[in-house]
Amino acid sequence: MSYRFLLLATAAGLAFASPAFALDSDSDFDMLEIAQAAPPVAAATGRSFSPKNMCLDLVARRIGNRAYVKARLELKPDQMTAWNAFEKASDEASTKASARCATLPAEMKERPNYVDRLSMEEDAMKARVASIETVKPTLVALYGVLSPEQKAILDRPRGLPAGGHGHHMRGHGPR
């Protein structure tokens, strides 16, 4: 089994298992930060890549995705308290994620060995679980005050047109 396939399978599996992905994720490569290893292309071409920058990009995408979801939900005044609590918890999780990103290497030229990748995967999963635990209570509360139409917007896998089906893995699962 290739490293890339294992990484994508892990990311897809965690996307389905994570309720916070409904609002707090925007990438099939959320778990790319798991391994913090050079992608196969970079390793094959000798180019370096930056785990730190990839991680910071992911945090920025999550923040942008929350703004998109807020606009799409067209929240009513009586729903704003729940949204504000969710947003505050999400901002806290984003701040912690950014701090974690800052500890990652700015540049890598070689792929870490298997044991190092496994340790990095474990660290990233622990960080993701902590983020979910921070956000989930407020997400559940927010979901509880949404109308059925708003829930349908939130429940729709992002990256797909409304009612559409993707032709590749990127469009599947709650994002």
Please explain how this structure is put together.
This protein is mainly alpha-helical and 175 residues long. The protein has one domain. Helices cover 66% and strands 0% of the residues. It has 8 helices and no strands. The protein has helices at 3-17, 21-24, 32-35, 40-45, 51-73, 80-102, 114-145, 148-155. Helix 5 runs antiparallel to helix 6 and helix 6 (80-102) packs antiparallel against helix 7.
What's the short version?
By secondary structure, the protein is mainly alpha-helical.
Q: In DSSP terms, counting alpha (H) and pi (I) runs of 4 or more, how many helices? A: 8
What share of the residues does DSSP label as strand, in percent? Answer: under 5%
Average predicted confidence as pLDDT: 75
Please estimate the helix content: 55-70%
Distance between the termini: 25 Å
